[in-house]
């Protein structure tokens, strides 16, 4: 069993990474390990466990800024925010049920994965709220980037580079994020029985309206039937549009948006509890959790979402639903040696979309590119970035791509 190192200070973290670099000893970087099964298997001599770097170090609710050690449990941070009526505006998903993992992960892991929930259409992605960090490069060097305010950036905006790097460039010890007030209430308008293409037209119209829609998702009947354990004929597709804010504002906007969408039918209005439960299922991919299927996360221009899903279904049995008004497509496909990668990636040819394999057995993730294969130009830039931060390939080597 590989050794597990658990530093409790940035100095200890620096010494561990520097020692590994000097010995060409790769490290598997992790927080709570809730997403260890996403990405290619890392062949490492030891594990660098960052969960010992824990605790909130800065929280100024009136300034909408929070700083914490990278290994701080996400639940601890969200509890502190909730106590002040605040939240992460980008609505990070909890994929524990989908991936079969325990806990909700760490603050640093949330940033390193850069996964955002339904509110991304209004609030932006994780990287848009990531202000600064302290970390240790693969060279064993401590450095800081960014700061406590959005405009405190000179030179390269390194926080945006680290968001979505999956621990392959830097082992972060401390992070600073922007937080926002939590909406007083929410409600959801649900249009029933629309086909995928029509649903995307309705969601696009809603997002272009002045009514501040904070979530737009479409769940086809076959997905709902499988999730509920019923026959497809007993299920009805749901197209959902979320409104958040103070009560009178939500009521007014719901009325106006319902009238705007009249050509698509008369929407049903979900009460707050039902609305929150529905969007939790969308955010955490619970509709696709109850099986052994491989699960893909596909990002496309919203108006291409239905066509891409149709192309996948023409090549392989697949259950797909849509978030971000069609811009995010979650697809479950039956177990296969390649997780039906040729069908999924073939469906993206001619688009600007990309696909990530989120759930599959280790042997499949070792054989199939988990992240979208980069173009030659992007691959060359990625190699140069890796060389700059981690020339000895110490931090999570191969997690994203075999040669990085």
From TrEMBL:
EC number annotated for this UniProt entry: 1.1.99.14
One GO molecular-function entry: glycolate dehydrogenase activity
Family annotation (PROSITE patterns): FAD_PCMH
Key word Metal-binding present: no
InterPro entries reported in the protein's UniProt record: FAD-bd_PCMH (IPR016166), FAD-bd_PCMH-like_sf (IPR036318), FAD-bd_PCMH_sub2 (IPR016169), FAD-linked_Oxase-like_C (IPR016164), Oxid_FAD_bind_N (IPR006094)
Signal peptide extent: none
Alphabetic keyword roster: FAD, Flavoprotein, Oxidoreductase
Enzyme class: oxidoreductase
Keyword Glycosyltransferase found: no
Residue ranges annotated for the FAD-binding PCMH-type domain, each copy included: 1-182
NCBIfam families: PRK11282.1
Annotated protein name in UniProt: Glycolate oxidase subunit GlcE
Organism, as annotated: Kaustia mangrovi
Lineage: Bacteria, Pseudomonadati, Pseudomonadota, Alphaproteobacteria, Hyphomicrobiales
């Amino acid at each position: 069993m590989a050794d597990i190192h658990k530093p409790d200070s940035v100095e200890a973290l620096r010494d561990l990474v520097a020692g590994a670099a000097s010995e060409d000893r790769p490290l598997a970087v992790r927080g709570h390990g809730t997403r260890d099964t996403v990405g290619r298997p890392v062949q490492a001599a030891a594990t660098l466990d960052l969960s010992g770097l824990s605790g909130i170090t800065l929280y100024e609710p009136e300034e909408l800024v929070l700083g914490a050690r990278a290994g701080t449990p996400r639940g601890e941070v969200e509890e502190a925010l909730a106590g002040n009526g605040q939240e992460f505006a980008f609505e990070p998903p909890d994929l524990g049920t989908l991936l079969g993992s325990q806990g909700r992960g760490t603050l640093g892991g949330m940033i390193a994965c850069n996964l955002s929930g339904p509110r991304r259409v209004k609030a932006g992605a994780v990287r848009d709220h990531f202000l600064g960090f302290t970390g240790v490069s693969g060279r064993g060097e401590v450095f800081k980037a960014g700061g406590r305010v959005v405009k405190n950036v000179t030179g390269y905006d390194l926080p945006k580079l680290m968001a979505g790097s999956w621990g392959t460039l830097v082992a972060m010890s401390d992070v600073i994020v922007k937080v926002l007030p939590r909406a007083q209430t929410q409600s959801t308008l649900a249009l029933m029985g629309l086909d995928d293409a029509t649903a995307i037209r309705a969601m696009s119209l809603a997002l272009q309206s002045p009514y501040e829609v904070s979530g737009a998702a479409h769940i086809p009947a076959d997905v709902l039937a499988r999730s509920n354990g019923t026959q497809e004929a007993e299920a009805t597709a749901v197209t959902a549009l979320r409104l958040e804010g103070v009560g009178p504002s939500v009521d007014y906007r719901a009325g106006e948006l319902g009238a705007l969408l009249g050509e698509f039918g008369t929407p049903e209005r979900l009460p707050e509890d039902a609305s929150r439960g529905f969007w939790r299922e969308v955010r955490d991919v619970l509709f696709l959790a109850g099986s052994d299927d491989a699960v893909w996360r596909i990002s496309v221009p919203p108006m291409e979402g239905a066509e891409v899903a149709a192309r996948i279904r023409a090549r392989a049995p697949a259950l797909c639903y849509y978030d971000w008004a069609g811009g995010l497509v979650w697809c479950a496909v039956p177990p296969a040696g390649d997780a039906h990668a040729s069908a999924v990636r073939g469906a993206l040819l001619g688009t600007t979309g990309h696909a990530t394999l989120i759930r599959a057995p280790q042997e499949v993730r070792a054989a199939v590119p988990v992240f979208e294969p980069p173009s030659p130009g992007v691959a060359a830039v990625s190699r140069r970035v890796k060389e700059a931060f981690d020339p000895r390939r110490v931090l999570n080597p191969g997690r994203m791509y075999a040669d990085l």
